[in-house]
Amino acid sequence: MTTLLHGVGLRLGLVTNGEHWRLVPAPRGETAGLASWYAMLWLEEPLTLRAFRSLLRARRFFGVPDDETLEALLAKSAARQQDVTDQLGDQVRRAVEVLVRALDRADQDAGRRLLVGVTPEDVYAAALTVMMRLVFLFCAEERELIPGRPFPLYEEHYAVSTLSEQLRAAADRHGEALLERRYDAWLRLPAAFRATYGGIQREAASMPAYGGGLFDPDRFPFLEGRPPGSSWRAHPAEPPPISNRAVLHMLEALQFLETSVPGRCERSLQRVSFRALDIEQIGHVYEGLLEHTARRAAEPYLGLVGTGQRAPVVPPATLETWRTKGEEELIEFLKDATGRSDSALRKALTVTLDLPTITRFRTACHGDDALWRRVTPLAGLVRFDGFGCPVALPMGASSSRPTPTGGRAARTTRRAV
Q1: How many CB atoms lie within 10 A of CB 364?
Q2: Vertex 246, ends 244 and 251: CA angle to 5°?
Q3: Is 177:312 a contact under the CB 8 Å cutoff?
């Protein structure tokens, strides 16, 4: 299509087989783009049909301002698509962090016997694999590539695309605190992964075995509570106690995109259409996650509030060192590490915590009074996770963090990371 457009000297082309409509902008000397619509979705998504009509109706070509022409709109769309992809990548990273911390919490509650012989890097790789498995299943279920609603057995016990709706309904009825004490939702995920890998052969539902390394249950047996080297067909599984609340926040981070509301200081949630998600977008998200890993904390760490996709994790000792050099030096370090403004950081350093927030911090510090005294003057800088808990990691905790690159903050934290 691009070659044809270049050959006839056109910048835009529209091609269709009646079902799939594709608009191709291909200006010379620039990367060609692509906008696609599927007619089969229009009955389910009338808003998409109205948008298609608005975009390609005759008036669009003859009677609109310059900033509303097809070329102008496609340029805006390309920029927005990158923003959406970046935001999705940030949310998937947060979902990985939720699972890493949930596994670490379960391991701690089990006296560090749950993940014996498992490195933090393996935990991160496993959490990343879980996210990519979920993205694959979201896409497959929405595109009806594997059994779904026609098979009640799959819908009730294996489908992942509807699990967050069930958990959110329970949270709305009873509160998220109840989900913190239930652990059945996590059992459904390994079951779905096994079904995809090994297939289902029952009267109520039949699904072929897809196999593949991504869904291999023996790749990370600890996700099922099995020892290293065990076989999923021979060894009984005892999945770790991952709370329903953790599963809910993990799934919602993947399924709902946080977007800003124009003209307002608030954000809205929009459901991600995995049916329309491009392989390039998935690849971009995955590539960004490879820039992170997990480490066992050799000393306490604090997760700081950052801008964009920045989520720095810094030892209190580092912040204390900069503070001894003077407030201006500390502010400069924090600006480099977090991307926040001078005024925002100064305000954060003077925040007074209320009693419920203090309680959350002390819980995060695992009752370590000495650590809490060190955290107190820095508490306004600390970000909170999806559960409303401050990201304050005691020594020995495991958490995901980015691979450091250049800059004052990176040079300072390279030793710790």
Answers
A1: 23
A2: 95
A3: no
Token pair 């003859």 is at which residue?
Answer: 62
Q: Model confidence over 66-109: pLDDT tens digits?
A: 778 877 777 776 666 666 667 777 788 888 888 988 998 899 88
Nearest C-alpha neighbor of 94 from the set 289, 239, 238, 273: 289
Are 223 and 239 within 8 A, CB to CB? yes
**Residue type present at position 57:** R
The pLDDT, as a whole number, for residue 81 is 62
Structure tokens at 107: 């391991």
Nearest to 312 by CA among 93, 131, 108: 93
Could you give the residue ranges of the DSSP H alpha helices within 290-416?
316-324, 327-338, 342-348, 355-364, 369-375, 408-413
Cβ contacts of 90 within 8 Å, gap of 6 or more: 308, 309
- The 10s digit of each residue's pLDDT in 238-296 is 999 999 999 999 999 888 887 655 555 455 677 877 776 767 667 767 776 776 677 77
- 385: phi then psi, degrees, rounded to nearest 5: -85, -175
Q: Where are the alpha helices (DSSP H) in 57-116?
A: 59-62, 70-109
What is each CA distance from 39 to 17, 21, 45, 136, 278, in whole angstroms? 10, 8, 10, 23, 17
CA distances from 145 to 20, 140, 193, 394 (A): 18, 5, 15, 44
Beta bridge partners of 257: 270
Amino acid at 4: L
